[in-house]
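hi! just following up on the protien thing from before. the input was this:
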Amino acid sequence: MHIRGDHAELTVGGSLDVRSAADARTVLHSALDEGAGDLVLDLSDLAALDATGLGVIMGAHRQAGRCGRRLVLRNVPPQMQRLLVATRLHRILAIEGGIRATPL
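and the predicted 3d structure came back as:
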C-alpha cells in the first residue's frame, strides 16, 4: 500500500487491508488534522480492499466530521463500488460522480 499527496488530496495505491491499515489510518488522520476543506481520497490505484481497509475509510470519514471537514472518494474501483452498495455505505460516504455499479 502507498499513499501520496497532501492534506487536500491523497492517492491510495496497492492493497488497503489488515496489513496496511495502521499506516493508512495514521496518514489519513494526519492529513485531516492538518488541513481544511474537503479531503479527496483518489482510489484509482487501489488494487484490493478488505473489511479492515473499509473500516479505515469509515474511521477517516468520522474523523473528517470531527475536524469540520468532509472525506470525498474519487475514482472508486468497480469492486469497491459494489461493496459500498452492498453495505449501503454509498449513502453515507461522499463519492465524486456517484456510484455506477449495479448491486450484488
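Residues 11 and 42 are 5 Å apart (CA to CA).
The chain has one domain: 1-93.
cheers
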